[in-house]
From TrEMBL:
Pfam families: FA_desaturase. Residues 52-282 form the Fatty acid desaturase domain. InterPro entries: FA_desaturase_dom. Keywords: Membrane, Transmembrane, Transmembrane helix. It comes from Nocardia albiluteola. The keyword Transmembrane helix applies. This is Fatty acid desaturase. It comes from the Bacteria. CDD domains: Membrane-FADS-like (cd01060). The chain crosses the membrane at residues 21-44, 50-69, 136-157, 199-221.
Length: 310
């Protein structure tokens, strides 16, 4: 049997217990979302406002929460596609942005990374470091998540208006126009609108449940926004252009790597996007097992700012 065949047999033999782990992780994520949005404000905060510190937990678990959605985007969370997508939609609603939009945006990222999508790059012929830096640092420090949430407003707009907006924001160094065009496809639009409505209703109810403590939920969402936005381009900052498969493998302690569902092995993921999270480390070791940077160093160096196109 070939090495690939042995690897696939090993994966198949281990799939059942890992599927059980995935099911447990999904249930835990939903329970955590329910605690954050309703159980905490309705049961615990009336007893003692100090319980608000418990919101630190879901903030710190932002990366594994997103990693579950990421697995669903690639169809690797649950084997049955319908169940996989349903779980992805539920998790995305708790996250605060429709699954259809997150999926389209992420798959466009895979296709156009370092070509149309290169967040930190600016062309000195058409812009400047200072002009680019304003939007860059805003996006880095929470703006990406803010864009994902404000995109809910697209659900209110007629299709021709969304298409017109897509043409207006379309440019060579952005996938926004492509994203807008794909969202209004008939097969996607109804799901996007339904999930957007559900998110608005869910979070309106949550803020009503928090009442005068609503600022606590807002602070937790700000923490989520910062972690999501800081992490997003850390795996690509300063890497080669015109290379969609280019991404970094970042060093993390093994416990944190497992907690993040191996999301730090992003270079492996870009080269093999069909691998499940528990298959990435084996592939990483098979490719030589060399990290490009530590996760903290990769996240911090983004604050050097935009990079001039050369």
């Amino acid at each position: 049997m070939t090495e690939v065949g042995i690897r696939r047999t090993k994966h198949r033999s281990g799939e059942r217990p890992v599927r059980a782990v995935n099911t447990w992780l999904i249930g835990s994520a939903v329970a955590l979302g329910a605690f954050e949005l309703f159980m905490l404000p309705l049961i615990l905060l009336p007893r003692d406002a100090a319980w608000g510190w418990a919101l630190v937990v879901p903030v710190l678990l932002t990366t594994p929460f997103w990693s579950l959605i990421h697995e669903a985007i690639h169809g690797t969370l649950i084997r049955r596609r319908a169940v996989n997508d349903a779980c992805g939609r539920v998790l995305a609603v708790l996250y605060g942005s429709p699954f259809a939009m997150l999926k389209i945006g992420h798959l466009l990222h895979h296709r156009y990374s370092r070509t149309r999508e290169r967040t930190e790059i600016y062309d000195p012929a058409t812009s400047s470091w200072a002009r680019t830096a304003r939007g860059y640092y805003l996006r880095l420090c929470g703006g990406l998540y803010l864009l994902e949430v404000t995109a809910l407003l697209l659900a209110l707009l007629p299709v021709p208006v969304v298409r017109a907006l897509g043409r207006r924001v379309d440019e060579p160094n952005s996938v926004a126009g492509l994203l807008f065009e794909r969202i209004v496809q008939a097969r996607v639009l109804w799901q996007f609108r339904f999930d957007a409505t559900t998110i608005v209703m869910l979070y309106t109810a949550a803020f009503l449940a928090y009442g005068v403590h609503g600022w606590m939920l807002l602070a937790a969402l700000a923490g989520r926004a910062f972690i999501v936005s800081l992490s997003d381009n850390a795996y690509h900052y300063g890497t080669d252009l015109d290379a969609p498969l280019e991404a970094l493998n970042l060093r993390l302690p093994r416990a944190l790597e497992q907690a993040a569902l191996s999301f730090n092995l992003h270079g492996v993921h870009h080269r093999h996007p069909g691998l499940r999270w528990y298959e990435l480390r084996e592939e990483f070791l098979g490719e030589g097992g060399k990290y490009d940077l530590g996760w903290g160093a990769a996240a911090a160096r983004q604050f050097q700012g935009p990079i001039e196109l050369t």
